[in-house]
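Go through this:
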Amino acid sequence: MNKKRETRLKRHRRIRMRMQGVTEKPRLIFHRSLNNLSATVVDDTQNKVLFSFSTLNKEIKEKMPSFGNIKAAQFFGEVFAQKAKEKGISKIVFDRAGYLYHGRVKAFAEALRKQGLEF
């Protein structure tokens, strides 16, 4: 495993010790790779995945050629927020999974806030 990944996972473990999603306010886990983004909403008290969405889904993949940039992260955040609201999720705990709050992570989070998700 490379050094960057190790430090990210170490940071994620440290953050997770203090962060927990409950039924009223589930945890949103954000993951980014070089070319794609994914987000999952989890209720930690019941150990259940409430909702999951990725840029690999057919309906979203058609609308953007690549998801490795900030503009695509903003678009993904807007679409994800709409889908989450349809599922009845309005308040979340944002888990950035050890990624720095910068670039695509920040763009995704700000797009969620614009669409009305509270965290």
Remarks:
- The helical segments are 3-16, 58-61, 70-86, 104-114.
